[in-house]
Write a structure and sequence with these properties.
Elements lengths: L1 E2 L3 E3 L20 E5 L6 E6 L3 H19 L3 H17 L1 H12 L3 H20 L6 E4 L5 E9 L2 E5 L5 H14 L3 E5 L6 H14 L6 E3 L4 H9 L5 E5 L2 H13 L3 E5 L4 E5 L5 H13 L9 E7 H17 L18 H16 L3 E4 L3 E2 L2 E2 L2 E4 L6 H4 L6 E7 L2 H8 L4 E2 L1 E5 L3 H8 L6 E4 L15 E2 L9 H8 E9 L8
Parallel strand pairs: 1-9, 7-8, 7-10, 8-9, 10-11, 12-13, 12-20, 13-18, 17-18, 20-21
Antiparallel strand pairs: 2-4, 3-4, 5-6, 6-23, 14-17, 15-16, 19-22
The chain binds nicotinamide-adenine-dinucleotide.
């Protein structure tokens, strides 16, 4: 296992995140890791450059055939061991997710549980059937089998840093690929260094996984490197488009999991208490910094006042503060850039006529959970991915208008429908142009074995999860074999 996150922590550590850097040292200088809630210095991490990516990609290409030839049971054992290491150190990893990423403890615990699921699901992949026998001429044995791609480049974001790295790293490794992971520099420890440590402790052979925290520079170098056969990217639509262009030119496989502007539809027969609870969780979980966040609440006119009042009351009750030191429901936004963005969207929407029914303010890195009423489809709170704790409510007159407005976005990640009638919910769900839809639930849902992915500006139809990951991280090879050599007319 090779990684280059030179890291010193200020806290003593059971899980030795404070060990000196493994080789190779990275050449991009050092970045202070600051706790978003307090500004306190937590660690320093080494950053990668394009030259580091070059070295890692070449080393990964060299190491990959040996790893692919390792017995499937041994590969599975490494994945299981990584899960066991995480189980042993989950408290400490949770603290990193909280302090580095601004997560509340419940979000950190959820994330660790989901990462364990990813590792256990991935551990099952090496021994699953990976092809089938095909009809052919007598004397010819013909099969189609899935083979590894080679080196997979994984580029991951800061918002759910450990899970969104692991959901690609774990299956890619399990299926015999080598991996170069470039986590976001803002969560280099919880989205990078932790991944490296888990697999180092689990006994992954040297050179098979490289973790190179950094920004767009090393990310772009990874995408264009000729030794990297596939890019698994999770992040913004703008960057995803650029990566898709480069990967298209290079004819390499690319999996794009991008942004969302997800609709939560509340019909006039919904249980409004449950709907408001779903709406609050969907918009405010992890301060709304989730690709699946409920970005638009489309509410039937008959119940709009009552639903909005219930939602605003819930928002007003939620405590905001430092999630490491206080019992709060919402922590800080990741950085001032994100805070300014959320604030701009709220201010511009209010200027255009939206009403602030709860929140609307911010203090330091903390933005209050905010409910906006009287939102119309021309306002930024409707058209943009907010990525902050804001719940815009839009009134609709019937199911037809709900469907039309839900689909009136280029995004297509997830949606939810609240209704007292399952047939009505199913009929409506079938008309939503999203990769995921939930009836009588909220929009933020994931499980390690489901085909997770979006449509349109939310992604290129790639899917994460169990056998769907197998399809992403391997390719078909048609293989025939005869005992007697074939004779031909030439
Ligand atoms: P981002 O696109 O700015 O960054 C994501 C990653 O890409 C980071 O590691 C970043 O360093 C890297 N990167 C940036 N520019 C690059 C370039 N030119 N070439 C290569 N790599 C580059 O995303 P963000 O704004 O930090 O993350 C939030 C976004 O991610 C939101 O839009 C959110 O909806 C989306 N997201 C999607 C999913 C999903 O599963 N669909 C999950 C989480 C987040």
């Amino acid at each position: 296992m090779t990684h280059g996150t030179a890291l010193t922590t200020t806290a003593s550590s059971l899980f030795p995140l404070d060990q000196p850097a493994a080789t190779p040292a990275l050449s991009g200088g050092e970045l202070p890791v600051r706790e978003p809630a307090t500004g306190q210095l937590l660690a320093t991490v080494a950053l990668a450059t394009a030259a580091d990516v070059e070295a890692a990609a070449v080393a990964a290409r060299r190491a990959q055939p040996g790893w692919a030839a390792t017995a499937p049971k041994e590969r599975a054992a490494v994945l299981r061991a990584a899960a066991q290491v995480l189980e042993r150190h989950r408290g400490e990893v949770a603290d990193w997710l909280i302090r580095e990423g601004g997560a509340v403890r419940g979000k950190a615990e959820y994330e660790i549980g989901a990462v364990l699921d990813e590792l256990w699901e991935a551990a099952a992949l090496p021994t699953r059937p990976h092809g089938h026998v095909l009809a052919s001429e007598p004397g010819r044995y013909s099969t189609a089998r899935r083979v590894p791609l080679g080196v997979v480049g994984v580029i991951s974001p800061w918002n759910v840093p450990l899970l969104l790295a692991m959901r690609a790293v774990a299956p890619a490794l399990a299926l015999g690929n080598a991996v170069v992971l470039k986590p976001d520099a803002r969560t280099a420890v919880s989205g990078g260094h932790v991944v490296a440590r888990l697999f180092a402790e689990a006994g992954l052979p040297d050179g098979v996984l490289h973790v190179l925290p950094g920004d767009a520079g090393p990310g772009a170098a990874l995408v264009s490197h000729p030794d990297v056969a596939m890019i698994a990217f999770t992040g913004s639509t703008a960057v995803g488009r650029a990566i898709g262009r480069t990967a298209g030119e290079a004819l390499k496989r690319v999996s794009l999991e991008l942004g969302g502007n997800n609709a939560l539809i509340v019909l006039d027969d919904a249980d409004l208490g449950a709907a408001a609870s779903a709406g609050a969780f969907g918009s405010f979980f992890h301060q709304g910094q989730v690709c699946m966040a409920a970005g638009r609440h489309l509410v039937h006119r008959k119940v709009a006042d009552e639903y909005t009042a219930l939602l605003a009351a819930r928002a007003a009750r939620l405590a905001v503060g430092d999630p490491f030191r206080e019992d709060v429901a919402l922590g800080p936004l990741i950085d001032p850039v994100q805070l300014d963005r959320v604030d701009r969207i709220v201010r511009e929407s209010v200027r255009a006529g939206a009403q602030v029914l709860a929140g609307g303010t911010h203090e330091g890195p903390f933005h209050a959970p905010t409910v906006l009423g009287d939102v119309t489809p021309d306002m930024p709170a409707f058209t943009e991915e907010i990525f902050g704790p804001v719940a815009p409510v839009i009134v609709v007159d019937d199911d037809e208008e709900a469907v039309r407005l839900a689909n009136s976005t280029a995004y297509g990640l997830t949606a939810a429908v609240q209704t007292g009638s399952l047939p009505r919910g199913l009929a409506l769900a079938g008309r939503l142009r999203t990769g995921i839809v939930h009836i009588n639930d909220q929009t933020v849902n994931d499980e390690a074995h489901v085909p997770f992915g979006g449509r349109g500006a939310s992604g290129n139809g790639s899917r994460h999860g169990s056998e769907h990951s197998r399809d992403e991280f391997t390719q078909w090879q048609w293989l025939t074999a005869r005992q007697k050599p074939a004779r031909h007319p030439f």
